[in-house]
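Problem: given the chain below (187 residues), write out its structure.
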Amino acid sequence: MSIILFWSPMKGASGSSSLAASVAVTIGNLYRGRLLLTHLGHRHTGIETGFPIQEHRMDDPSLQLQEGGWDAVARLVLRGTLSRDNISNYTTPVLEQTLDMLEGTSGFGVAPPLLSSGLVRAVMDTADQYYDLTLVDAGSGAGWGSVQHEACTRAKLAVLSLTQNIRELDAFLNLCLRYRLTRHCRF
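Solution.
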């Protein structure tokens, strides 16, 4: 499984989304292969804000009723119809024939509504069958839950994004020593 996870223990402005997006675009421009970039948050937040995702207004004649992102693939997982042959139909192309983005969940509620560790597992396993590499922005802050843990256990590499603020670095490193964090992503 080829998954790279990006996360920061510091809430907001830590750069994990920017780092995930820039690494995805760099890899997409330098190497051949199919890449998937996604995040575990709400639609139009995080990595999505840095890309020109085309939005259609209701009076736009070119409106095509398309739905994608985690909401769409969640329904396919529930129906048992998500496969390597159709997963890319629910992504947004960022770099043609190279980099696709799986958008976040709808913005209803405080927490992303449809995400569960089982769903993340099913989508990551399916993505691994079609894409050569999946890059996941797991968010930032202390809200490390079962969804982020599932993504982390599936990842070959976890990239921790830290600011250059010495107080935040000291606090994080003290937390690491206190909990003796291991390479198994026990945050």
